[in-house]
Amino acid sequence: MPELNTRWDIFCTVVDNFGDIGVTWRLARQLVAEHSLKVRLWIDDLHAFERLCPDIDIEASQQWQQGVEVCKWPTDWPPTEAADVVIAAFACQLPSAYMDAMAEREKPPLWMNLDYLSAEDWIVGCHGLPSVKYKHVQKYFFFPGFQEGTGGLLREKGLLERRWQFQQSPQAQREFLQGLGIDRAEDALLISLFAYENSGLASWLETMASDSTPTHLLVPEGRILADLERWLGVDGLAAGAVHVRDALTVQILPFVRQDQYDLLLWSCDFNAVRGEDSFVRAQWAARPLLWHIYQQEEDVHLDKLDAFLERYVQGLTPAASEAISGLWRAWNAGETMGDHWQSTRKHWPELQKHADAWCLEQALQADLAAALVQFYVNWI
Length: 380
Prior knowledge:
The chain has 380 residues and is an alpha/beta fold. It has 2 domains: 7-154 and 366-379, Rossmann fold, CATH 3.40.50; 159-362, Rossmann fold. 41% of the residues lie in helices and 19% in strands. It contains 15 helices and 14 strands. The protein has helices at residues 19-35, 46-52, 96-104, 122-126, 159-167, 170-179, 201-209, 225-232, 258-267, 277-284, 300-312, 318-333, 338-346, 348-362, 368-379; strands spanning 7-12, 38-43, 62-65, 68-72, 85-89, 110-114, 130-134, 137-142, 189-193, 215-220, 242-245, 248-253, 270-274, 289-292. The strands form 2 sheets. The protein has an 8-stranded mixed beta sheet, with helices on both faces. It has a 6-stranded mixed beta sheet with strand order 11-12-10-9-13-14. Helix 7 (201-209) packs across helix 13 (338-346) and helix 11 packs antiparallel against helix 12 (318-333). The protein starts with 6 loop residues before the first strand and ends with a helix. Pfam families: EarP. It catalyses: dTDP-beta-L-rhamnose + L-arginyl-[protein] = N(omega)-(alpha-L-rhamnosyl)-L-arginyl-[protein] + dTDP + H(+).
């Protein structure tokens, strides 16, 4: 791919706490690090961003972080020269003054709407197609995805090699976990839980607590803590708290940087994740997983869930497919989890092998950052 001396602007409005900014921050860094691009990341909520990047100055209107120019999205938009490539993440509306600046360029920029991740078949037909125009500036659809004909998934160079080396080193895993204050028992099942509020949690916890196999549940600070407090009968759960009930140990972790979260996913036997960014990272961890999809009006999200499951379970035996699909659907409906969890545990070796195969299959596609750059190269 040729070297590109180009400037890219990425716009992000924070809707889902960390999913939107998680994707755009990861993408911006990769475009800088692997493609030597000049990238500005415009964010409307630096408080949410601070959780992912503690070095951020939430009062600064402009600053540099890891090679990315991070700009606070101002209420009153100042005169700003439009970039060569403009990415509106997740259909966010660009400032009207900036859109005028795009139209005033002698050569209009490439303007792309980076859409939400989906496994639905229709996105293949829409990926890369022209969308609306603003004056003479054309916008294009760009869809991440799990199949050929989409934009692929975010995946940094060498990610799977680093993950494999880490998972082959018990010492590296032990040192990382101990750094977070985690003392894992050798016979315990290690599970991470990052989720939205869920009425099905109590039944899952009860099943793990009564299991013959001990479980160590690691819960990063987040929206699921209120449900966890109700089940434990405690108030004010915070990082560092550890509670034991029969075979279940629950430990609250601090919110960590993205690279540390990767290591957490790689260390666990099973990962419950939410939204989009952590969902993709759990797939690169090559471990069985449970996805809590972001809820949408009229249950549109359930169509997306079913579309992914239909693709994901291919290659599994009918029994294993039914077990993992039942678990996912129950979790996303807030239903009782006990029987579904026990069925999933019966097929653990097959699901582990399948998670590894799925990871390698997805890695055959170009990663999202490379696909965006190639789209620009083809466009010019």
